[in-house]
Amino acid sequence: MTPVGDSTLEDLHTTATEIFTGALAACSIASAFDRRLQFDGNVLHRLLPDGSGPAEIDLANYKRIYVIAMGKAAAPMLEVLLDRMKRRKGLRGICCSNQLPKSRNWRFRYFEGGHPEPNEDSFAAARATLAMLKKAKKDTLIFFLISGGGSAMFDLPLDPRITLDETIMFHRLLLASGAPINEVNTLRKHFSAVKGGRLAMAAPEAGKVSLLVPDVPLRSLDALSSGPTSPDHSTVAEVRELLTRYELSAKLPPSIRAFFEREDLPESPGNKGWRPPFFPRMPWTGTAAPRRVTAAAAMSGEDEAFSHSVFEILVSSHDLVENTRALAQEAGYYTVVDNSCDDWDYADAARYLLQRFHALRTAHPRLCLISVGEVTVKLDRIPGAGGRNQQFAMVCALELEHHPGERLTVLSAGSDGIDGNTKSAGAIADPTTVTRAHVFGFHLKESLTAFNACPMFTALGDSVVTGPTGHNLRDLRLLIAEPTEPQ
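^ that's the sequence the OP posted. Answer follows.
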């Protein structure tokens, strides 16, 4: 790479990568757990109780303890919980992640669920969990360890006649729709037997502790893994409006289209306010059958299944931002955080952040603009190899081409270490990206249109590769500038 002044763009690439990986390392599950929770013998102390349930929970009051772990952070969350919780009597559980851990506990069943689309293990894990929760009584305490990615890894249709292949098509259509994650998960909640509060409904009498590592905005925690233990406030009317707005109905497999068109399509459990109690007339079988909501629960706005629930956020994108800010400041950058383009179209988000970036660096030539959240990509064809972070980086590269000779770098990467259908977490762009890509025979606009960014960034050595991180705290974008002339 050609040096610019006394610093190279390669140095900026290294700096951006080190800030990203350093911020992730500072968000470890173990340290987050110890900041929020502490076991003293059989007593679990909530160090920062938020009002959702008691500050202390005595495990000695329960005959059985179940642990249900799901999502990309399922294995490390389970490992930390078991290490801190010494009690083993009556302990059983299920762990469903996208990668089987090397070390496994004999008391648990492990499943390798699919992502971004479900697979056989996704269904098997959901069935096994429903069967286990059916045995839970008042003497049972259930820990739900929930992290991002569980919407695909852990799924089962509410209508048992819908097949895995049809469910895969449903997930594929949602991901290609361009809808923001909260709307995608509204549809998933009403489709699934294990989302939208239905896991809580499966064990209504048991005590429940949901420990969360969210990959969604904190204002939308019920979207995390499509809210398996959270009361859901979305409605059937909203589901049908979304299917119309994104023109999905005609594309759905016939069985799923018929499911959503049923007049007796059930509301998901949770506070529906004025809405009457429901009891759906559907061909429910076995453990997939929903429980009736009583008139008293509907009138009070709170179902009994949620009355014994505690929710605790272990670590979130807020922690990722603060750790990123601290590292950038330590490196000597003036830092600004702008998360306003969350859930925007990737190209619109890129243009907005670059405009803000250029405006800020006129006053602060040594600058790090930080943005966390996820952008959306609407697919109109079968994609190549890439993901939303690499699409974002390509748009940035095309704009940065107009700033030759300047020390500017943009990094966009997923905290889970995976971007789209690739093994890259994301990519880095700078003012030389377009020119260097041409040398290798790549044309960015063609790659952008084909959603095929990964081959180009890989050839340039500008892919961000971390491997699966055991985390999922949303995507991080860094726009870094240094003075063109030494100061």
